[in-house]
Amino acid sequence: EAQVTQNPRYLITVTGKKLTVTCSQNMNHEYMSWYRQDPGLGLRQIYYSMNVEVTDKGDVPEGYKVSRKEKRNFPLILESPSPNQTSLYFCASSLSRGLGVNTEAFFGQGTRLTVV
Amino acid sequence: AQSVTQLGSHVSVSEGALVLLRCNYSSSVPPYLFWYVQYPNQGLQLLLKYTTGATLVKGINGFEAEFKKSETSFHLTKPSAHMSDAAEYFCAVRPSSGYSTLTFGKGTMLLVSP
After folding, report:
1. Nearest CA of chain B to the CA of A100: how many Å?
2. Which of A10, A112, A113, B77 is the most exposed place for a label (fewest CB within 10 A)?
3. How far apart are CA A73 and CA A6, in angstroms?
């Protein structure tokens, strides 16, 4: 089954304690990205990756890091989390240059992060 | 550059009534357009998409949307709302060429009353 898997689904942590949210896809997609969802703001892109070892900032990258060492995995790293990073996070993947029918992004189930 | 505007953060309808969720976009190149739905405590699920061809596209659960280039719109409709349609709906756009940066609107919460 084609899917994007995020872990964990829920996480409560304390300010300053490094954490990693994992994301894995089994569709051989080149393009992967991270979004955060906040009430009234919709989904905002944090970082994206067009392929292995190719990453770039999205709209709200401050306080986050990513890496893309393998095609299937795209972890999101918070080196020193702060309360303003409390949010719902989604990982997504798609074909980079999808044409026609193969254009949509597939989303993980989300990770609800609370930083206290 | 691209952007998406969804008119109305909340839309309330009665069961059986017409659903209309508005989406307008701006894009410097011809876009691909999407509607996603998010049910409570779940991820985003693709409802429908416009890429090329017929401008009226049909999706899952009886929803459809029409791409109107002259109006830069991609409004989502359903003739008769069901209680199970209550969810948050997101319109999104990405360029038809180049890489797959997907830009979302802020979402519209659909409330359905009996």
Report:
1. 6
2. A10
3. 10
